[in-house]
Automatic annotation (TrEMBL):
The lineage of its organism: Bacteria, Bacillati, Actinomycetota, Actinomycetes, Streptosporangiales. Coiled coil: none annotated. CDD domains: SDR_c (cd05233). It comes from Sphaerisporangium dianthi. This is SDR family NAD(P)-dependent oxidoreductase. InterPro entries: NAD(P)-bd_dom_sf, Sc_DH/Rdtase_CS, SDR_fam. The keyword Transferase does not apply.
Length: 253
């Protein structure tokens, strides 16, 4: 199947909803065989059935990215089913209760860092090892506009997403000579289960965020997934260590 990811094998984390599920559809449409991971098996199974029903190559592996053994199993699934791993899209993430730092318990900080940073670390280490064995590849990590600018009452999330960008740069510098590119995307406010639930509770926040975004709206998950697909593809062959804002201009102001 033709497309910018034609012939690639892509592992997508956090694929049961939101940007991850959109990426599964976009990557498959662009020609990739996709290996989908998340903690929710029913949603993964439904998505794989949907993709296979359209003639796409797709499998899933239930995985919690904070568990190295789960990540090992997901990478092994890609190799067992398709013979290699060309693309890693490390998208699994955890939000945080918006609260002043001094009122947050340490367990909140630890949980966010464990998923958003340590989870990317676990995935990248295993993806890179497989890509070294296979002659190269491309990794895209999901950071956030919160990784480029600071926002109040969300310190653990901001810390974790800044760190993802640092980890992306470090890996890009280390493996550029091995035909492995590593980049990040920094989405702005994007429609998802979590965001929709938050907006339902705080409708004024949706208007405030729209007003702060030059394009005047929130992103659809597919728009973010399209940017990730481009970075993952050979169309971005001379791009590594970059962080691409996908934010409607939010970080311009």
């Amino acid at each position: 199947m033709s497309g910018i990811l034609s012939g690639k094998v892509a592992l997508i984390t956090g694929a049961s909803s939101g940007i991850g599920a959109a990426a599964a559809r976009v990557f498959a449409r662009e020609g990739a065989a996709v290996v989908l991971t998340a903690r929710r098996e029913r949603e993964l199974g439904d998505l794989v059935d949907e993709l296979r029903g359209k003639g796409f190559e797709a499998v899933y592996s239930v995985a919690d990215v904070t568990r190295p053994e789960d990540v090992d199993r997901a990478v092994s699934t890609a190799v067992r089913e398709y013979g290699r791993l060309d693309v890693g899209f490390n998208n699994a993430g955890l939000g945080v209760e918006r609260s002043p730092m001094h009122l947050l318990d340490d367990t909140v900080f630890d949980a966010v860092i464990d998923v958003n940073l340590r989870g990317v670390w676990h995935c990248m280490r295993r993806q890179i090892a497989q890509m070294l064995a296979g002659g190269g590849g491309s990794i895209v990590n999901t950071s956030s506009v919160g990784g480029l600018v600071a926002t109040p009452v969300g310190a653990p999330y901001v810390v974790s997403k800044h760190a993802v960008i640092g980890l992306t740069k470090a890996a890009a510098a280390e493996y550029a000579g091995h035909n492995i590119r590593v980049n990040a995307i920094a989405p702005g406010t994007t429609r998802s289960e979590m965001i929709d639930a938050w907006f339902a509770l705080r409708p004024e926040m949706e208007e405030r965020l729209r007003a702060a975004t030059p394009q005047g709206r929130t992103a659809e998950p597919e728009e973010v997934a399209e940017a990730a697909a481009w970075l993952a593809s050979d169309r971005a062959s001379f791009v590594t260590g970059a962080t691409l804002p996908v934010d409607g201009g939010y970080t311009l102001v």
